[in-house]
């Protein structure tokens, strides 16, 4: 790899700050593939990560030391520099909550209940102005922070306009944009106001290389370019010609970081959780799911599938427990608050219908606890992952890699992970509750040898492109 400076830009950064009782600031490393992917690249290169301040503590940190050189505990990041942007709260709220999360996320995950939403009125157009301003703040920070010929890796739908903003002013930069979400097909993307759809596509086409997690999402993007920009796509090479340049579109199927996960999952706090969970569920079979409480994760239909299994197969009463960890997410979006209540309501109904004095069929936990999730990954007999649509779904890859005795995977065909894991998972249509219930039963009743053999193959596919190589592949594509 050459040594040119690397810049990364993402809305959520690699650290979050908190304020101690004595008023001093502390920081904590965030999770995710991108942070571990950078560990190799950053160790040998000058790296600057630009992100948004997301909390009051982040804003205090950003105001006191806009650019910090941080050693992220446990990771040799070679003292990577992190620059947090203190974007005015109203601009940030409109860009992040309204445009990015309530609109672009909904479009790419096809989440709208169309009789009422979306509605693109003058209020939305004002929010869009703030989305532009927020993208411009990132572009400005990247321009200020970059040396000649630096490589810039822009992340996700929040920052779709950044590549073009950079290109216009600094043709020397080599720019990649990576989408961690699915991409909407033209039939759905056309819901966006025409000028805004075009601005998004043209914004991304400012990059030299565009990366997606699945071929399905890359193809959908290319089709949108054909339909809305009327550009020529070379489908054999998977390139688009735009503005006198050729942009290539690649698929980089991020895999699990088995090494670092296994070392974390072997720690004492995870063992303690394992013992505690085992005491709670006894020797019953365990169905596990771990998600953010996120509309696209389809938690309610998953719970309903468990209910249907219990209704139709009383022989499983008292012999199975469903551990559902649904961690808080995006509480500023009203649909998420309603969905969280719905998840809790259905969970309660299931326990009322089937629970006995000695058996709680469903254990729903809503507070985020990473070591407890790892303990559950190790113990799961069956892993349920049934999103309506998902860029990848790393849990589908991480949990099998940690399994103590092999787990069976019930997986939505609409997750990017189904591309690699489809052969050994039990694939389901996420809308089909009955099919999901049948798959859960098949998974519970799978014989031990078959379950272990399938899980071994799942792990092989799930770890084929670890974060480090995933990131290096993208940098290499910039040459
Ligand atoms: C998805 C997105 C990420 C985002 C994450 C958590 O994985 O692709 O960009 O950071 O969700 O969402 P949040 O809104 O809490 O950052």
UniProtKB/TrEMBL annotation:
One annotated GO molecular function: alpha,alpha-trehalose-phosphate synthase (UDP-forming) activity
UniProt cross-references to InterPro entries, sorted A to Z: Glyco_trans_20
CDD domains hit by this protein: GT20_TPS (cd03788)
EC category name: transferase
Record key words, sorted: Glycosyltransferase, Transferase
EC number(s) reported in the record: 2.4.1.-
GO terms of biological process kind: trehalose biosynthetic process
PANTHER family found in the cross-reference section: BCDNA.GH08860, TREHALOSE-6-PHOSPHATE SYNTHASE
Family statement drawn from the similarity comment of this UniProt entry: Belongs to the glycosyltransferase 20 family.
The protein's name in its UniProt record: Trehalose-phosphate synthase
Species the sequence originates in: Streptomonospora litoralis
Lineage: Bacteria, Bacillati, Actinomycetota, Actinomycetes, Streptosporangiales
